[in-house]
Amino acid sequence: MKPFGYVAAKSAEHAVALLAEYGKGAKVLAGGTDLLADLKNSPHPPPDVMVDISRAADMKGIALTDAGLRIGALTTHTEIVESPLIAQTLPALAEAAVVIGAVQTRNLGTVGGNLITCVPSMDSGPTLLALDAQVTILGPAGRRAIPLAGLFVGPRRTSLAPDELLVEIVIPKRNVGKPAAFQKFGLRKGQALALVNAAAAFWGGEGVFAEPAIALGAVAPTVIRAPKAEAYLAGRPISEEAMAEAGRIAATEAKPITDFRASAEYRLDLIAVLVKRALAGSLARVTPNQKDLAS
Question: Which segments within 106-240 are labelled E, that is strand?
C-alpha cells in the first residue's frame, strides 16, 4: 500500500471540518473493510489524507428516540447482530448484518460504511429501504435529513458532497416494530456477495397486507423498491398465492445484469422466490393477536 496522510476526528463536526480543510484530497475511514482493500489494489494514487472517524462517539449507538429507532453510522454489523433492541424491533436488519462477510468484517465494518459503498448488492440496504429509513447528513451548513433512497445515485456513487458525512440512520417511529424479513442468495453460504437480496415488510393485523413494502438488491444500479408489487398487495387478503404473485410482479420491476456470477434470467427467477420468502418471513413476525386476525 502506498503511503498517505492520517488524521483522527474527535467527533462528527470535527470530521466535517477536516474534510472541508483537506478538500478532495481527503478520504473518510471508518471500519476500513472496503476502503483499505480498495487502496491496496487500486492503480490510482492514494488520498492525501485519511480522516479516521472511528473514534467519533456521537456517530455510534442504537437507541429509541422521539423520531424512531436511531442507528449511528459507526455502529458495527456485530453490534447490530448482538443488540437486544434490534432483536426486539428490527430483527430483519440483524438477519442482513449476520451474512455480511466474515466475523472479522462484521466486527470492523459499519452500517454507514456499507450504505456509503453504494454497491447494488449491499446487504444493509433492502431492509432499511423497505422501512422508509431516513439518513442524517452533516456538512459545513449543518444537518439535513433525506430518505435513504436519496443517498443512492449509482454503483459506488452517493449524493454526498465531498465535505459531507453520513452520521446516522433513523427508522421512522411509525415503522418501528413493523414485521419485516430479509432474504439473500449467494453462490456459497458465507462471505458471498448477493446474487439477489430482498426485504419485505407489512402490517398484517386485519388479515390483509397493510402498508406493504418490498426492496431489492443486486438487480439494478442501486437498491430499489418494487412499487408495482407493493400496490398489488396493498389491501389484499393475506395468502400464499398473493405472495407468489407479488414476487412475480417484483421481478418485472428489476433490471438485473448478466455477469460471471449469474445470468439476468436466473436473477429474475431468484427475485420471485426471495420476495415470496421475505413476505412469508414478515408474516411469521406478526404478533399473536395479529396472526389470529390474519388467519
Answer: 134-139, 142-147, 152-154, 157-158, 165-172, 180-186, 194-203, 210-217, 224-225
| Dihedral (CA of 261, 125, 253, 119) sign | negative
pLDDT tens readout for residues 52-76: 999 999 999 999 999 999 999 999 9
Look at residues 80, 284, 281 and name the one whose alpha carbon lies nearest to residue 200: 281
Report the candidate in 161, 153, 147, 271 with the shortest Cα–Cα distance to residue 222: 153
Phi-psi sector, 48: left (phi>0), alpha (psi -120 to 50), beta: alpha
Q: Give the span between the Cα atoms of 127 and 81, in whole angstroms.
A: 14
Give per-residue pLDDT as tens, 245-274: 999 999 999 999 999 889 999 999 999 999
Position 190 scores a pLDDT of: 59
Nearest to 275 by CA among 185, 193, 192: 185
DSSP class of residue 149 equals G
Helix (H, G, I), strand (E, B) or coil at 1: coil
Task: Report the distance separating Cα 112 and Cα 155, nearest Å.
Answer: 16
pLDDT tens-digit map of 119-166: 999 999 999 999 999 999 999 999 999 999 999 999 999 999 999 999
